[in-house]
Design goal:
The C terminus is likely disordered. The chain is built from eight helices and no strands. By secondary structure, the protein is mainly alpha-helical. It is 61% helix and 0% strand.
């Protein structure tokens, strides 16, 4: 599937609002990719988590689709927002993207989203522990 910039879909704001938003010293997507916000003692954890939960509740399905149509940073962020927001309507879309494996970095977000929707559990700490066990 070719990538399509959200601006082409009329959602130019979603990259700045959800992907590169700075809830810490860095944009959101590297914090999601490295799961730094799950580590005990990270000084920005509460603010980061609160904003992530708020955004998961307020982002529209159309905005999520715009992020999923773009590159790995946007897809990673969308997958986390989908999982945290428990957007079951995206189950097949995420499954297809995961199977296509077009980009590698989105996988962690896709795994989190899949696990939440399969188990109904949204514990980020439990997912992180499980993800660590799955690594070689």
């Amino acid at each position: 599937m070719p990538f399509q910039h959200p601006e082409e879909l009329g959602y130019a704001h979603v990259i700045k609002r959800y992907v590169t938003r700075k809830d810490s010293d860095h944009p959101r997507y590297p914090e999601l990719n490295g799961s730094r916000f799950l580590r005990p003692g990270w000084p920005h954890a509460k603010r980061f988590g609160r904003h992530l939960i708020d955004d998961a509740a307020t982002i529209t399905d159309a905005e999520l689709e715009a992020l999923l149509a773009y590159e790995w940073r946007a897809r990673l962020t969308a997958a986390w927002l989908i999982g945290i927001g428990r957007r079951d309507a995206f189950r097949q879309r995420i499954g297809g993207l995961l199977l296509d494996s077009e980009v590698c970095y989105s996988g962690m977000g896709f795994r989190y989203r899949t696990k939440v929707l399969q188990t109904g559990k949204g514990s980020l700490g439990a997912e992180r522990r499980s993800s660590c066990r799955d690594q070689p």
